[in-house]
UniProtKB/TrEMBL annotation:
Might act as an E3 ubiquitin-protein ligase, or as part of E3 complex, which accepts ubiquitin from specific E2 ubiquitin-conjugating enzymes and then transfers it to substrates. GO terms for biological process: protein ubiquitination. This is RBR-type E3 ubiquitin transferase. Belongs to the RBR family. Ariadne subfamily. Residues 34-232, 38-83 form the RING-type domain. It is an enzyme of class 2 (transferase). Coiled coil: none annotated. Its cofactor is Zn(2+). Pfam families: IBR (PF01485). It comes from Kingdonia uniflora. PROSITE patterns: TRIAD, ZF_RING_1, ZF_RING_2.
Length: 232
C-alpha cells in the first residue's frame, strides 16, 4: 500500500489527523512498532529519540523538546511546562540536562536561582565598602544581623548599621533628623527612584527610561512600574 504526496501533505487539524493516521499505518507496514510520532514535528522517530518526562507521558522527540526549552529559557522563563498545551506538568531542569547545550542549561539554572531570590526578603550590607546582597532565607522578622562577607553587624529591618540601644521604632523616629531630610532632598534633586523590589534608590544617568536595579529588577524610572508601563 502506498500514499500520494498530496495525501501526506495535508494541513490544518484535519490534515494533521490524516497525516498522523497515515504515518501510523506506514510505521506498522515498516515493521517498527516501537517507533513513535512526535506530537510537535509529526515525524516518525525511533525509540531512542523519545523524550522521557517523569511527570507525564507524551510523544515528543528530544530535538523538539530541546528547541522548545531553549526558546523558553531565553525568554527568562524559570518554570517550564510540558509542551502539551493541555498538560499541567513541568519539566525538570536536571532531567533535561543531557539534551541541552551548556549555555541553555546554565541559563535555565540562572533563571531558577533568580526566581527563588526575588521571592525572598533581601537587603544590601549598609557598609559602603561591602554592599553585599544578603537574603533572609529563614523567613520571619529579622533585626540584628551579621553580614557574612564583612562580618559587621547591622539591622536587617532598618537596613542600617546596628543601632545599639535603640529599638527599630525608636531608631526610625531618630532617623527623621536633619541628615535624613537632607538625603531626601538630594534624592529628589537627583531624580533618584526607589526600586519597587528592594526599595533602594536607582540613578538614571542616560539612556531610556527602563532601568535595572542591582537586585535584578527592571522598572520604569518615571513611574516606577515593573510592567504595564504607559509612559511615553
Amino acid at each position: 500500500m502506498s500514499y500520494s504526496n498530496s495525501e501526506l501533505d495535508q494541513s490544518g487539524i484535519a490534515g494533521y489527523a490524516v497525516r498522523g493516521t497515515q504515518m501510523k499505518r506506514q510505521r506498522l507496514l515498516l515493521g517498527i512498532p516501537s517507533s513513535f510520532i512526535c506530537e510537535i514535528c509529526t515525524e516518525i522517530m525511533s525509540p531512542n529519540k523519545r523524550f522521557n518526562n517523569e511527570c507525564c507521558k507524551h510523544d515528543f522527540c528530544v530535538d523538539c523538546v530541546a528547541k522548545y526549552i531553549k526558546v523558553k529559557v531565553f525568554d527568562d522563563v524559570s518554570k517550564i511546562k510540558c509542551p502539551d498545551p493541555d498538560c499541567v506538568a513541568f519539566l525538570d531542569c536536571l532531567s533535561c540536562q543531557l539534551i541541552l547545550s551548556k549555555d541553555v542549561f546554565e541559563k535555565w539554572c540562572d533563571n531558577l536561582c533568580d526566581s527563588k531570590i526575588l521571592v525572598l526578603e533581601m537587603v544590601y550590607c549598609p557598609d559602603p565598602s561591602c554592599s553585599a546582597l544578603i537574603l533572609n532565607e529563614c523567613g520571619g522578622r529579622v533585626e540584628k544581623s551579621e553580614c557574612p562577607h564583612c562580618k559587621k553587624q547591622f539591622c536587617f529591618t532598618c537596613k542600617v548599621p546596628w543601632h545599639s540601644g535603640y529599638q527599630c521604632k525608636e531608631f526610625a523616629e531618630e532617623m527623621k533628623d536633619s541628615n535624613y531630610l537632607l538625603f531626601e532632598k538630594l534624592a529628589k534633586l537627583k531624580a533618584w527612584k526607589r526600586c519597587p523590589t528592594c526599595n533602594y534608590f536607582v540613578e538614571r544617568r542616560s539612556g531610556c527610561r527602563n532601568v535595572r536595579c542591582r537586585c535584578g529588577t527592571d522598572f520604569c524610572h518615571i513611574c516606577g512600574m515593573t510592567s504595564l508601563c504607559q509612559c511615553s
